[in-house]
Amino acid sequence: MSPNTDATIPAVLAAPDAPDAEDWLVDAALAPLADGSLAPLYAGAAAGELTLPFCATCGLALELEQRACDGCGATDIRWRPVERAGTVHAVTLVHRREPGLVRVTEPYPVVDIELTSGHRLIMTTLTATGSAPAIGRPVTVGFRVVGGVAVPAAVLSTTESSAPSEPSDAATPDSPRATGTAPAPVPSETEVSQ
Amino acid sequence: MASSLEPAVVGLGLTSMSLSAGGVPVDLAIEAVAGALADAGLTARDVDGLLVNSSQGVRPDRLGVALARQGGLGDLRLLEHVEIKGATAVAMIQRAVLAIRAGLASTVVCVFADAPLRAGGTSGSTYAHSGGSDGARGLERASGVLGSVPTYALLASRYFAVSGGDPEDLCAVAVSTRAWALGNPDAVVRKPLDAEGYFASRMISTPLRVLDCARPVNGAVALVVSGEATPGPAPRIHVRGMGQAHPMRRRRAPGESWFGGGRAAVDGALAMAGLTRADLDVVELYDPFSVVTLLLLEEYGLVEPGQAGKVVRSGATAPGGDLPVNTGGGQLSGFYLQGMTPLAEAVVQLRGTGGARQVPGASTALVGGIGGRGDHHACLILDLEPSR
């Protein structure tokens, strides 16, 4: 376990418990290459850890594909678990759904999360939701499983899995309202006007 | 053997821009090259350099240096496949000019061709299936980031959060760019557009609608850069300034990851030209998405920070405005042939052959090409007057 892992994050969100189940969002054909250049991330994810690269010499948070530190020039990279928490840095609700690759019938969120470790990581949400979380909103990180490979996913709130129900585009009157998600009332500050 | 004249763009060739499947890049490229040579009054025998720009991604029909052989060219002194993603086309012109000045070649053809529209599938589908499963891209694709629209949508959301912009600004860009396209017979979308039409268009990835996105075509553009006197009737378009910037914005706190750092390319090009932003008659920018026009206007110092939306909404960038931008309809309404789109339009404007969309008296143009997610910037100052 990571010493940084927030003890308040429910364990159920951290450990993908049904690796053979189909993902809510994408087809198994989009499974990432688990033993490729991001192998440490996927190995960690399989164990419920969010594992990201740092410079082994100066400790700077590095990009996923970085091979040398831009701070000190060292080439020794250490992947280690980080706190599974951060905030929304950028967000979009994807309406275009490529047939055969995207399984859902409604728009889905993609978020760029700024983790407390400093890294920024693009992911979708742990479960289906038609809402786009506001920039700055705190999130925790769990894992989806795509074609047997665990990948990080944002958890918008601890109750998300039981209430995935914020109406999309609620604060964007000009856009056609997405349909299909249950219309539950939500606090306005959790919505984003894009 | 150095060339006799300052290197200049002397030939321009465009294929028809097709919104339907058909054609392969090599054939489209050969057609564009032939057009550019004819425009310059030259033949393939006059060419001693070829620079090739292909679309990104590994496709079986991707354009390459084999074009020289397949296209019937003779012996060359310069042959390169240039690759800086979307910034390539502009960088090729820089490469050609430097090679001619150095005596490595005298007449260089620069060409880009692409055919993303396939039978039985849309260009969006072509892009959605591209990217592979390894690295950061593989992780993003597993997260539903297919094609480039969601990525630029994230950029747009971040840009709005920082700049204070909103969808009305995107609308203003789409409307302004369409107004220019109405006067360009090569533009593939020439139906008048207003705000109502914009907001009625299909959402792709918030806040980007289909009318915020470039129009991919099957087609090609070629330019001839030469240091020799050429018989073509068009005026020589000189490359007075050039610059590149490759900002290493990191994907980590606290800096911005999605934009910033491109200004040095424009500053460098203007300094080389001995000109200022006030000297620019037309601005031709790589605009794969409407938000990029807003972003680059600010990043390149053409408007004050945070003012791009206001400036575009004022009509300044539209026909008749003080800051004409993407005067052929850009990639949004004209055609998406990557860096060749702004480059070709700048040449047309400086030649004065823009017809209904001609900016009267245009003699100095800024051409800006970007690659990646704004990771690569290549700029030119084109001018009717030579730099020396």
Structural notes for this entry:
The complex is a heterodimer of chains A (194) and B (388). Chain A is mainly beta and 194 residues long. Chain A has one domain (12-157). Chain A contains 2 helices and 7 strands. In chain B, 33% of the residues lie in helices and 17% in strands. Chain B is built from 13 helices and 11 strands. Chain B has helices spanning 25-40, 66-70, 88-101, 123-128, 135-142, 149-163, 167-181, 195-199, 263-273, 290-299, 308-313, 330-334, 340-351, and strands at residues 8-14, 49-53, 78-81, 107-114, 203-205, 208-209, 219-226, 237-245, 282-285, 364-371, 376-383. In chain B, the strands form 2 sheets. In chain B, strands 3-2-4-7-1-8-11-10-9 form a 9-stranded mixed β-sheet. In chain B, helix 7 packs across helix 10. The mean pLDDT of chain B is 95. The interface between A and B is large, with 54 and 46 residues.
Q: How many individual β-strands of chain B?
A: 11
Q: The biggest beta sheet of chain B, please?
A: 9 strands, mixed
Rounded mean pLDDT score of chain A: 80
**How are strands sequenced across the largest beta sheet of chain B?**
3-2-4-7-1-8-11-10-9
Provide a compact summary of the structure.
The complex is a heterodimer of chains A (about 190) and B (about 400). Helix content of chain A is about 5%, strand content about 25%. Chain A contains two helices and seven strands, in the order ααβββββββ.
Please write out the topology:
The complex is a heterodimer of chains A (194) and B (388).
Chain A: H1 11-14, H2 39-46, E1 50-55, E2 77-82, E3 85-94, E4 108-115, E5 120-123, E6 138-146, E7 149-155
Antiparallel strand pairs in A: 1-2, 3-4, 3-6, 4-5, 6-7
Chain B: E1 8-14, H1 25-40, E2 49-53, H2 66-70, E3 78-81, H3 88-101, E4 107-114, H4 123-128, H5 135-142, H6 149-163, H7 167-181, H8 195-199, E5 203-205, E6 208-209, E7 219-226, E8 237-245, H9 263-273, E9 282-285, H10 290-299, H11 308-313, H12 330-334, H13 340-351, E10 364-371, E11 376-383
Parallel strand pairs in B: 2-3, 2-4, 9-10
Antiparallel strand pairs in B: 1-7, 1-8, 4-7, 5-6, 8-11, 10-11
